[in-house]
């Protein structure tokens, strides 16, 4: 028989819970952005999720340091674009970029390697698959002074708007993908980065500017390069790099009112600025190509020497948005790895709203079914269950808002599933408690005396069950990736809150009910049938005792 518990102070427990809820909502409404709305994932509010698979020239596995550096750079690019609610996470050898909103182009271009080199132009020809005529000699932009990693004025005949290079198709399996990528890069280098003039001419004639580029961001700056312009109309033969894009100190975008065009202005570090000044003074009348991820963005003619320390402008067929994106990409540096988009998912805001409504409806249906079961089976004790679940829901909502505000936690469909399961687990704790009370009443105790003894037995079972659930959620969170972690997180959170609610709300309320004459009525608490069983057992035991006594007397 379980021993009775010590003194219980239900009022103190309820006050503590009330203070916790009050403190949470004070943080919600009086700190941060003061918005009482949780941060939603793209499957609930709409947005784009892009999975970038890292590629290395030799097909080896990328190091975690390189992935972390790439993650940091992409995060700064996101912040530079002013995109709120975005996140970049490492998932194995992949980076997963999530950008909310309707503009999917931002997320799809954030993984651009942005390896910029300045190379001398040794020759050019119209692309074999281009419908345009061969580019004419261009007149570079007058004012800008080229420098360290600059992009001077673009030849009018070869406008080069920066466009996204299509990623190679995803392969069957990580190992085969890495091997094939390494083989494609090595094969491309043999022809397009050969030092043999005959091979170079063959590469210029054979290069398809509309096909995906295996060298994207993987070209060797110390070797020549056969590359296409970004618009695919011109093929260039370029010499080894003279300036690395890492020499860029700053990059900004602006609209040139005199030329009526958008430009990207570059400021170089001292060493790059000196190199560019020397190159321009020695190559007046020749072209210099600015290559970004193995594509020629701009190839202006050097019209005069550029003084060291002056800025250089990149011109082309830029819109305001593309100029800003390019400046942002160059400003925050090149990625240490090249990536291909292995998966891209765009969810419209309308679909996200529909998903949110479906999740809320599912949660409401689950809650209503639990409450109906408790009311039918436990009568008025089900009201205490309903009150406990409502208070638990208030606490969960406040915590979701605060987690989204301070650690960037986003609530998605998987997270809602974890919350719905948490409702069932909380109800399960109530069932365990109430059934233990029934067991005590069957042994002949009153409702008042059964509550503390039932609690002493039930709380061990509740703690054990929740401990197992929390361990399972923790293991799932550590081992899982992506949205499954959101499910594990909310499941673990609701498991902890279940314990808090049962100890600080449910048990104190039931304890208070056991002291009340109204709640002690069998017709109210639904325990009449159990008490009848107890009386029948007591009568049968008395009959057996009387029969035994009579038998002894006989």
From TrEMBL:
Domain Protein export membrane protein SecD/SecF C-terminal residues, every copy: 338-512
Bias (Pro residues): 158-169
Domain SecDF P1 head subdomain as annotated: residue spans: 232-336
Compositionally biased tracts (Low complexity): 124-140, 170-185
Chain segments carrying region Disordered: 122-201
Compartments (UniProt record): Cell membrane
Pfam families membership: Sec_GG (PF07549), SecD_1st (PF21760), SecD_SecF_C (PF02355), SecDF_P1_head (PF22599)
Family: Belongs to the SecD/SecF family. SecD subfamily.
Subunit composition and interactions: Forms a complex with SecF. Part of the essential Sec protein translocation apparatus which comprises SecA, SecYEG and auxiliary proteins SecDF. Other proteins may also be involved.
Protein name: Protein translocase subunit SecD
Species this chain originates from: Rhodococcus daqingensis
